[in-house]
Design brief:
The protein is of the alpha+beta class. The protein has 1 helix and 8 strands, in the order H-E-E-E-E-E-E-E-E. The longest helix has 18 residues, at 2-19. It starts with a helix and ends with a strand.
Length: 114
């Protein structure tokens, strides 16, 4: 029984940790000129930044929490005072659902660009 419990615990932990790698990639939205890039290892999301080639800008996000199929960031744009908290949820392999709260409210979809 003890071995079964340890095995199940390890499988559960492994499945949670490796799910973060599914966020890895470049993501785009029809509503924005920015491309969101997420860099993730097999264990966690490491970095999130937004690049606009029209505005020649890069805005980074601070990761504040991580879970199996979602993570949360804070984005603060010092140029215009814009501040939001964004919860990223993996809907499927090629779609992310972003839930914004703060200066912008609502849910938006990102599709995998690369």
């Amino acid at each position: 029984m003890k071995k079964l419990f340890i095995t199940l615990s390890l499988l559960f932990t492994f499945s949670i940790l490796t799910a973060q790698e599914d966020f890895n990639g470049m993501w785009e939205s029809e509503d924005s000129s920015y491309i969101t890039t997420i860099i993730a290892s097999e264990y966690k999301v490491l970095s999130v930044f937004n690049t606009s080639f029209l505005e020649y800008r890069v805005i980074t996000e601070d990761i504040i929490s991580r879970d199996k199929n979602k993570f949360t960031t804070e984005l603060n744009n010092e140029q215009n005072g814009y501040s939001v908290t964004i919860e990223y949820t993996l809907k499927n392999q090629d779609t992310l659902v972003l839930k914004y709260s703060g200066d912008l409210e609502g849910e938006y979809l990102l599709t995998r660009y690369y």
